[in-house]
Amino acid sequence: MSSSEMREPTFLVLAALADGRKHGYAVISEVSGLSSGRVTLRPGTLYAALDRLRDEGLVRPAGEEIVDGRLRRYYELTDAGAETLSTEAARLQSNADQALRKLRLRLGPAAGSGVA
């Protein structure tokens, strides 16, 4: 996957797994939190994305357990997934930095402290 093709939900799923293994519902909750509620994943959408990311070598299964009579599947980021996430985060940061720089130029020196 080219980093320029990564969609926001994919980025957020990888980011949700960056600090350790999680089960599906925890990934859904983390994605919602990371996006301040802008991105809401349905279970079917999440598991399709996890299957695709697994096929791409970016995530891997990390165990299963039964909780309250329901199967919980855990997933974790692979080293390739962490590298892909890092590359995409750097690309997004660079784009944001450039946009903010351009905004500061547009606003002029008097408004310099209003846009970080």
Topology:
Blueprint: H1 8-16, E1 22-23, H2 24-34, H3 43-55, E2 59-67, E3 70-77, H4 79-107
Antiparallel strand pairs: 1-3, 2-3
Helix pairs in contact: 1-2
Domain Transcription regulator PadR N-terminal: 13-86
Pfam family, one: PadR
Protein name: PadR family transcriptional regulator
Structural notes for this entry:
Strands 1-3-2 form a three-stranded antiparallel β-sheet. The mean pLDDT is 91. α1 packs across α2. The relative contact order is 0.15. The chain is built from four helices and three strands. 53% of the residues lie in helices and 16% in strands. β2 and β3 form a beta hairpin. The protein has 116 residues and is α+β, with helices and mostly antiparallel strands.
The gist of it:
The chain is an alpha+beta fold and 116 residues long. It has helices at 8-16, 24-34, 43-55, 79-107; strands at 22-23, 59-67, 70-77. Helices cover 53% and strands 16% of the residues.
List keywords for this structure.
4 helices, 3 strands, 116 residues, alpha+beta, 16% strand, 3-stranded antiparallel β-sheet, 53% helix
Percent helix: 40-55%
Unreliably modeled segments:
none
Largest sheet, strands/sense/barrel: 3 strands, antiparallel
Major sheet: arrangement of strands: 1-3-2
Structural class: alpha+beta
Summarize model confidence as the mean pLDDT: 91
- The SSE string, one letter per element, is HEHHEEH
What is the distance, rounded to the nearest whole angstrom, between the alpha carbons of the first and last residues?
Answer: 31 Å
Kindly estimate the percentage of residues that lie in beta strands according to DSSP: 15-25%
Judging from the principal axes of the Cα atoms, what is the shape?
elongated
Number of beta-strand segments: 3
Radius of gyration: 18 Å
How many distinct helices?
Answer: 4
InterPro entries: Metal_resp_DNA-bind_regulator, Tscrpt_reg_PadR_N, WH-like_DNA-bd_sf, WH_DNA-bd_sf
Pfam family, one: PadR
Organism: Kribbella speibonae
Protein name: PadR family transcriptional regulator
